[in-house]
Amino acid sequence: MDAAHSIRQSLSRVAALRALVAESAPLQRTLLATKRFQARRFAGTYQDLLQSSTFAAPTRFFLDELYGERDFSDRDAQFARIAGALQTFFPSQVVATAVALAQLHALTEALDVEMAQYLLSDGWPAGSTLDSSRYLRSWRAVATPAIRLGQLQSVLDIGHELDRLTRTKGLRLTLRMMRGPAKAAGLHSLQSFLETGFDTFASMGGKGRDAQAFLDTIRERETTWINALFHAPRVACETDLETCLGKAL
Q: What is the pLDDT of residues 148-186, one digit of tens each?
């Protein structure tokens, strides 16, 4: 499957999910509550990194661009529009990252929507505060450990690829020179993601050592959470979630 087809297929899934959610105000509110809960869990898990001079920027990038609650409609539309010309418009080193991002986005959106649908079917009153008990039930009702670990691996792969791109000679200059053409083509959101990701990982320096330490921390902590959310005793896991959320306040 070529890059353009893969990106269009992934974003078509996302568009279908958005259309489904748009038909139901309760589902919209529940999906937003789910995303907000997960963003708070991430912020609580990595509060130390968010306060680190070395790792604050990459942690914020992951939170905003990969785990965040914001609307990615503009970036998705730009991905879809550029898909056919991706391999000629952007440097070849960027193509794999764009494909991986689109695939991760589709998987994440599908899992979030499934969790929101479960919450509604479980009697959660849309619009109220999502508590750890209901979140845990929805997590365990949707997907499997293998799917969640695969989602995590996709996140890590994108991080490794962004880190590798920072050591590609001349790529930063190429990205800078693309600002004008990208803006003229209506690709500002995609351009911003690429530049921010590049600069974020470049800021860690150390020929990849800091980036590797950062990604290893993500892997370790997220794997621990995935195992706990699926297998830990319910009350203990809910308590850990509440403690984590408290750190994000």
A: 999 999 999 988 888 887 777 776 676 676 667 666 666
Model pLDDT for residues 80-110, shown as the tens digit of each residue: 666 666 666 666 667 777 788 888 888 999 9
Phi then psi for residue 124, to 5 deg, are -70, 130
- pTM score, two decimals? 0.87
Quote the CA–CA distance of 95 and 69 in Å, as a whole number. Answer: 25
* E strand or H helix that includes residue 204: none
Using alpha carbons, select from 43, 39, 19, 42 the residue that is nearest to residue 113.
19
Under 8 Å between Cβ of 45 and 225: yes
Q: How far apart are CA 173 and CA 14, in angstroms?
A: 32
Evaluate whether 218 touches 155 at the Cβ level (below 8 Å).
yes
Q: Which residues of 105-124 are buried (b: 16+ CB within 10 A; e: fewer)?
A: bbbbbbbbbbbbbbbbeeeb
Rounded Cα–Cα distance for residues 18 and 110 (Å): 10
